[in-house]
Give the backbone structure.
Amino acid sequence: MEAGRRVRELLSPRARSLHMPTIAMIGAGRIGTNVAQAAVNAGYDVVLANSRGPESLADVVAQLGPKARAATAHEAAEAGDLVLIAVPLHAREAVPVEPLKGKVVIDANNYYPQRDGRIEALDTNASTTSELLQGHLPESHVVKAFNNIYANEIPTDGLPTGTENRRALPIAGNDGVAKSAVAQFLDSLGYDAVDLGPLTESWRVERDTPAYVKRTTADELRALAADTQRVQQA
């Protein structure tokens, strides 16, 4: 709880004016790099890691500019005040555990059986992708976010706080302080956050649901998420 509170305080507007927290991305594909771009645009320092090693990210880091650097997954996990996990679901068990203890971890994943293989807990709707990551990171505070927006829209669709028809993105998590931290991060990138509740409810915006990759305001997103049926994975 204390780590989550510290991140929330770091992300507050007053704190950001004094010290910008570091945002780490474990996974530097489309979601990871586009969240990194949005974070850099908002003034954050970012650290990116992938499975191929820091050297493979030289071009990405050069494009992002001086506020970005590459690292190993372990180093990124240690460096991040807030850490995004954007690896394929089947690779979740390679995410380092120890350096993420007590930290707020954002899960951006969706289940694609053709990529991830069959996962019984998801096929039977006994779990959600975020609950699986939380099980792998039992001492971290996992929050679902960034899974229902096209990656290339993340750096471009944000608008200032209070703008009419501002886009909303859903979050879900078991820790209120951690969700508050992620909501403040989303706000700093230009998005309202809609809290779906605990991780057990994160299915409401997963692949093939009405809210998936649909641009919505906060009110529209709440209505869609409330009026949806759980997808039977295929």
